[in-house]
């Protein structure tokens, strides 16, 4: 991974494998339990579990992996706003330091 804000190309085969791992985890009891709590990791709002998406805190495009420690349940609104941001960049965005 490069410096903050720098995009380093991720190998297509690596992306493919990580996306497959994420699809597998979406079928797991771990994900069903996490989603079943109905709470967005980012905004902490309580939403219907069907409204939660699986999000990579460190996006795959930024070198993140599909492992439980990097995956969270996020409402669609937060997931769409976060896009490819790293956790520190998301915090800056939430605090109004980054433009939408």
TrEMBL record:
Where does the HNH nuclease domain lie?
29-80
Highest classification ranks of the organism:
Bacteria, Pseudomonadati, Pseudomonadota, Candidatus Lambdaproteobacteria
Q: Which Gene3D superfamilies match?
A: 1.10.30.50
Q: Name one GO molecular function term.
A: zinc ion binding
Cited SMART domains: HNHc
**Cross-referenced InterPro entries, in alphabetical order?**
HNH (IPR002711), HNH_nuc (IPR003615), NA-targeting_endonuclease (IPR052892)
Going by the UniProt record, its keywords in alphabetical order are: Endonuclease, Hydrolase, Nuclease
Q: What is this protein called?
A: HNH endonuclease
């Amino acid at each position: 991974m490069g410096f903050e804000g720098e995009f380093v190309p991720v190998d297509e085969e690596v992306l493919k494998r990580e996306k497959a791992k994420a699809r597998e985890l979406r079928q797991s009891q771990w994900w069903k339990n996490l989603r079943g709590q109905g709470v967005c990791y980012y905004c902490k709002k309580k939403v219907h579990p069907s409204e939660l998406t699986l999000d990579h805190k460190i996006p795959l495009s930024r070198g993140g992996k599909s492992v439980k420690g990097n995956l969270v349940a996020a409402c669609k609104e937060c997931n769409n706003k976060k896009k490819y941001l790293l956790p520190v960049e998301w915090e800056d965005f939430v605090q109004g330091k980054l433009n939408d």
